[in-house]
Each structure stands twice: as C-alpha cells, then as structure tokens.
Amino acid sequence: MLSAGTAHAVAPVTGRSATVGVDPRDSTTSVLLANGHAIFRSGLRSVIDTQPDLRCVAEVGDGAAAIGEIRRLRPEVAILDLDMPGLGDPATIETVAELGGTSRILTLAADDTDENLYRALRLGACGFLTKSMPSQDLVAAIRTAAHHDALIDPRRTRRLVTRLTHGIDPFPAAPELAALTPREHQVLLLMAKAATNPEIATTLGVGEQTVKTHVSNILAKLGVRDRVQAVVYAHTRRIVPQ
Fold it and tell me: Gene3D superfamilies recorded for this chain (predicted)?
C-alpha cells in the first residue's frame, strides 16, 4: 500500500532532479516521478524498479523541474503529484497539458474528490490516482497509460461536466476562511504568492516570529498539514484573485 502519510515529515525538495541515463534500445516503459516529498518518491521508485518492464528515468520535486525533465527525457509516463509546489499556476498547467501529447500524464492526490479530478483534467491527465491505492494498482495504471488507454471513469467525467454546465463551481466555498482574522487572511494571500516569512514580515511591518504564529494559526484553522497545502487550498478555493 502506498500511503499518503509516508511523506509527512519530509520537507519539499528543490527543483533539482536525480536522473538515470535513457538507453533508446531499452524496451521498458520510461517513467518520471514528480512529488515534493523525497521519502514518498523513494517508495514509488522502489515499486517501479521491481518491475522488469518499467524504469524510472528521473525524480523531481516541483512543477518547474517536472516540465524541464519531461521536455528533456520525453518519458512515456509522467506521474505528477497534484499538491507538489509549482503545479498550480495557469502557465504551468497549460505547459503540462501541451506536454501530455508526448508523455502520458498520471496524477496523484491524497483525496478522491471532484475538485482534484478537475485539476487532473486541466493538466491533460489520462489518469487520476489516489496516494492510498495499492502498489499493484499503481503498476497496472502505469502500464495502462503506456498503452494509451484512459484510466478516468467516464461516469465521473460526465458528472463533473454536468456540475460545470449547471454553473456549479468544482471548487467549493471555503467556510474555514471565515475563521481567519483579517491579518491571517493577508498572510495567507502573501503565502499563496510564494512570499517567504521574512518577506511577509517586511510587507506587513511585523516581526518574523509574529508571521510564524499567523502561519501556524492558518494551518490549524484551514485543517491543512503544511504551508504547501495551505497555498494549494488558497488557489483551488479561489481565495487568491485570478
């Protein structure tokens, strides 16, 4: 079982990637892993590397690095974590969708929700998987994607399209937002714009320790695990003006 909880204690890595040379004579399916947590990524790689017909050609920790390596290596399948840093802005989404013409995109998310399905579809994904799925199902999904078969249940897609055509926003309202103070709301908006704690402190004219306290309160009130999830929350709930 690939548990989403595996990577809780690991900080996101930078955009640098660990790569393995690609031998064009190799008939195995090449796979790229993009996930912000090194331990979780390592678990995925161990599952893939035990399969004689699959080969992990690169590991990356953010959206920008994923785009760079997909362009460079042209893997047959790219597995992207929807919650990793740098995957939420419109330009990145558009670029990943374009690259989906050469590499099949599989997406991973902690929760099986319409919201995450919508995000996967915007990326041009052929598959939407959850992190709690059994490892054998992940392997089967990679093989299915490599054969250019879709993994998204058409009934779910139709349901989502119905919601959209009836004007139902796939990103639900954020009732938790009401629990934030005006200052915490300001901090959240700055976090969503990738501002660091020192930058937020300078912008708001407060001490860095005060910012850290605000960030901790925000995480608790929104019910998210870390800063990255808070930023994803802010964007997907459209708290951040587009």
Answer: 3.40.50.2300
Which residue, 29, 34, 118, 113, is CA-closest to 77? 29
Query: Closest by alpha carbon to 123, among 146, 152, 165, 154?
Result: 152
Whether pTM exceeds 0.85: no
Domains, in order of start, for the chain = 4-164 (3.40.50.2300), 175-236 (1.10.10.10)
- Residue 147: predicted pLDDT: 87
Inter-residue contact 139 to 129 (CB < 8 Å): no
pLDDT tens-digit readout, 202-227: 999 999 999 999 999 998 888 877 78
Could you tell me which residue, 7 or 110, shows the higher pLDDT?
110
Question: What Cα–Cα distance (Å) separates residue 126 from each residue in 105, 117, 157, 160, 228?
Answer: 6, 11, 12, 15, 25
Mean pLDDT of the chain: 80
Structure tokens at 157: 């897609």
From CA 223, how far away is CA 59, in angstroms rounded? 29
Contact of 32 with 75, CB cutoff 8 Å: yes
